[in-house]
Design a protein that fits this description.
The chain is 68% helix and 0% strand. It is globular and about 70 Å long. The termini are far apart. It is a multi-pass membrane protein.
């Protein structure tokens, strides 16, 4: 009773507060939870990876600059253990999800976006804990997934909890959950500005929710401060391209990267959701557990030929950005890796495993840029940058930014993750081309996105049927 009275007093206080005070208080509260959630998941994933892949499979996983900058190993000393670990990790993850929170399967961000549009009170508290454990098992055992999905669901879930407990209006609840999505992703990637912009853009394909932008600054900045105070403020990938100067002679290359990024992003979304549909149609007893396990087995077998598909893959991005280590990777691996990572992510998450799809999109874009640079360098093409970093950063922005229908947010986030804001004048060309090409299709990596604010409002009012996803 006392808790109900306290909640009622807080709710009344917030409802009677002006815009500034309300969103300052809510923004800081959501940001603190987002930052702590990002820290908790980062540590859970780190220890799980060290035990499952490191101890059980005896594989030294490469890590990015902000994660320790460990070059890792390019091969396996205990190759037979890799598919065993990926299978068992996926099996354990799927069993936990099936038993405690079936809605925690998949990448999670779509569920949070759907809550924004339909019911911002709908995210159950238990989903947050289940998602964290299941994703740590999936990715830590070698499944191809990103760490942003669980952190987005943690902070979005807290926004949903506040909406329920404080009886916020639906409009305020939608903003709170959107802020949670952006701040969670921004915190785990060390990209607070990009996270704030993402909060305002990720829920629509062709629109921008300005109501979420300014409160998102508060939430994302708070989350970043909390996360960085514990784990440090270094960019995830260090300064990949700190001092690039725009060269007009490179315009054809930026156009080309935009075109191939759109094609690759399109392939990513189509392959991922084709895998989801196929997995749902295959009649296997206990399929909600066995299908992810089968996906884990196939990823482990694929990794025996291409180790770069394992886990998040951020360490391989770090290695690819350096010319000497990129040249040490066989050319056929660099060229085929974008497709191999798409397949691995589809098998890991599309079959019902738990993890994000943003992170793999960054790795796919990285090796798309790396492959373009290596092939052009091999052919002696003119106007190439001195190293692969420029192509890698631009392709990371264009590939996922286009298919996520969040070009500005992803461009800012990648610039923050790589400390490479100098690349933006060149990147806006590639990102713009890629996004314009994607908008000619009906494809998005986030199916819960609505077309725009007007379509979403009409759907909620029952004027039109739900938009085609």
């Amino acid at each position: 009773m006392a808790n109900a009275d306290t909640d009622g007093r807080i709710a009344t206080f917030l409802r009677n507060s002006g815009y500034l005070r309300k969103w300052l208080l809510l923004g800081v509260a959501i940001g603190v939870i987002a930052g702590l959630g990002a820290v908790a998941f980062y540590l859970a994933l780190t220890y799980t990876t060290e035990f499952l892949l490191g101890h059980l499979a005896d594989y030294d996983v490469p890590t990015a600059y902000g994660d320790g900058n460990n070059p890792g190993a390019s091969g396996f000393s205990r190759a037979w253990a890799i598919p065993v670990v990926t299978t068992l990790g996926a099996l354990a993850s799927a069993a936990i999800v099936a038993r405690f929170a079936p809605e925690a399967r998949g990448h999670g961000t779509d569920d949070a976006i759907e809550a924004v549009h339909t019911d911002p009170r709908a995210i159950r508290g238990r989903v947050v804990l289940v998602k964290m454990i299941a994703s740590a098992l999936t990715i830590g055992s070698g499944g191809s997934g990103g760490r942003e999905g669980p952190t987005a669901q943690i902070s979005a879930g807290f926004g949903s909890l506040l909406t329920r407990r404080l009886n916020l209006s639906d409009d305020d609840g939608r903003v709170a959950v959107s802020m949670g999505i952006g701040s969670g992703i921004g915190a785990i990637f060390g990209a607070p500005l990009g996270g704030a912009v993402l909060a305002a853009s990720i829920v629509y394909r062709q629109d921008f929710d300005y109501r979420s932008l300014i409160p998102g600054f508060i939430t994302s900045g708070t989350a970043y401060a909390v996360y960085g105070a514990v784990l440090g403020f270094e960019p995830l990938f260090g300064a990949l391209v700190p001092d690039y100067t725009f060269d007009p002679a490179g315009l054809p290359w930026f156009l080309l990267i935009g075109i191939v990024s759109a094609a690759t992003g399109y392939l990513y979304a189509r392959t991922f959701y084709a895998t989801v549909r196929l997995s749902q149609r295959i009649p296997i007893p206990g399929g909600s557990v066995l299908k992810p396990a089968l996906g884990g087995l196939l990823v482990g077998l694929l990794a025996l030929a291409i180790p770069q598909v394992l886990s998040s893959g951020y360490g391989w991005v770090q290695l690819a950005a350096d010319e000497s280590t990129l040249m040490a990777i066989p050319l056929w691996v660099v060229v085929i890796l974008p497709v191999a990572k798409i397949v691995a992510t589809s098998l890991s998450i599309g079959t019902g495993g738990s993890g994000g799809i943003f992170g793999p999109g960054v790795v796919i874009g990285c090796f798309l840029g790396a492959a373009t640079w290596r092939l052009a360098e091999l052919a002696g093409a003119p106007a190439l940058p001195a190293g692969p970093g420029v192509f890698i950063v631009i392709a990371m922005m264009a590939c996922f930014g286009s298919v996520a229908h969040a070009p500005l947010a992803v461009m800012i986030m990648v610039a923050e993750m790589t400390a490479s804001f100098s690349v933006i004048p060149a990147a806006i060309i590639a990102v713009g081309v890629a996004y314009l090409l994607i908008t000619r299709t009906d494809v998005s990596i986030y199916r819960a996105q609505r077309m725009n604010r007007e379509a979403a409002a009409a759907e909620r009012a029952g004027v039109t049927p739900p938009a085609a996803y």
